Amino acid sequence: MWLYCVSVLVCAVVVSAQFPRECATPEGLRSGQCCPAPPALPGDPCGFVAGRGQCVSITADVRPHGPQYPHDGRDDRERWPVRFFNRTCQCNGNYSGYNCARCRHGWSGANCDQRVSLSTDEKRAFVNALEQAKRTTHPDLVIATRHYSDIFGPDGNTVEFENITIYNYFVWSHYYSVSKTFLGAGQASFGGDMLLDPSFALPYWNFAIGGNTCDICTDDLMGARSSFDMNSLSPNSVFSQWRVICESVEDYDTLGTICNKTSPIRRNPAGNVNRPMVQRLPEPQDVADCLQVNTFDTPPFYSTSSESFRNTVEGYSAPQGNYDPIVRSLHNLAHLFLNGTGGQTHLSPNDPIFVLLHTFTDAIFDEWLRRHGSGAIATNSDFHLLHV
Question: Which positions fall inside the Tyrosinase copper-binding domain (predicted)?
Fold first, then answer.
């Protein structure tokens, strides 16, 4: 079912993204501060005078890691982003962005106090917006192409950052977070302001409809199946022209370079005959059962946790919360159902269905928070780096 939500994601800020262009300089790195001014408010870092935000010191979790993380101090991503910056913008109210220049998703207006609703025209514009994001160099963010030890380049003063397109930045961020550098095979966190349009909120795909049909896999939405190759997209879809990047999960570890561009998107929904359990989408009751799991997470805070909402919505547990190593449900099942690019962890964001699948997962989490409250989320040094 093609549904829409108004506020589901958080704009990319420096604590969860790569780096604003203004900060990617030797001076910025050496100062450890990334607090740019909004373009409309020059000389006002983070829009402080205008009441938009303030430049604050980052408070990173300094508690000891659990036993599953034996490489303390050896990974640039650890206590992100303090290896690079220790002061960033903290935005007030509905203001957002790395410089507090934008509104949170779902809000608009000069003071970010007007709710946004989606029109029929915006539905039709969504595919075009994704295509534009795939082709347009990100105006604000660049990516690091070397580990921090080599970030200043061979001459010690040429910083190693590169441009990337808006959508590919999103793909690369996922790739960066799942690469196994000192962490073991990981899972990614998801977020980011891909479309760079403060009036546009991302829709979601309600994948909990059961059956073996991908109802958004049509040429006017996410691309139908090709009549020539059951694993390919129809040539009538703009997404058939997209190329997968970051195909090798080893590239950043061994080369430290931007991802390659290789094959087209592959997708064959319900086509994995070797795994019948992933040939059907989750059922509506699966979501209802998942929302009844009361505890956000349980030991060992990993993919083997039982009676854990986090592990249940992620899909490593049965919808009722009990861990079963054979089960794949909800989020994981939706990925595996796609049977192609979208079913491989490090490649999955290359298929734009990833966006809609994850916004629905976010919507489930949002509903869980409404029912159980944010106080139900405990903190513990044994938490593993997984995503919801």
Answer: 351-362
Please indicate whether residue 371 or residue 285 has the higher confidence score (pLDDT).
Answer: 285
Give the span between the Cα atoms of 359 and 141, in whole angstroms: 22
Q: Is residue 384 pLDDT above 90, yes or no?
A: no
Which residue matches tokens 């506020």? 7
What is the token pair recorded at 340?
């192609």
Q: What is the DSSP string of 282-343?
A: PPHHHHHHHTT---S--TT-STT-SS-HHHHHHTSB-TTS-B-TT---HHHHHHHHH-BGGG
Model confidence pLDDT, tens digit, residues 22-33: 999 999 999 999
Cα 205 from Cα 187, distance rounded (Å): 21
Helical pair 330-338 and 353-372, crossing angle rounded to 10 deg: 170
* Cross-strand bridge partners of residue 141: 20
Q: Which single residue is written with the structure tokens 């958080």?
A: 10
Question: Tens digits of per-residue pLDDT, 47-87?
Answer: 999 999 999 999 877 777 777 767 777 778 788 889 899 99
Nearest Cα neighbor of 335 from 269, 239, 275, 238 is 269
Question: Which residues contact residue 12 at a Cβ distance below 8 angstroms, ignoring those fewer than 6 apart?
Answer: 97, 98, 141, 191, 192, 193
If we measure between CA atoms, which residue out of 300, 304, 313 comes closest to residue 372? 313
**β-strand partners of 20:** 141
Taking the C-alpha atoms of residue 288 and residue 283, their distance in angstroms, rounded to an integer, is: 9
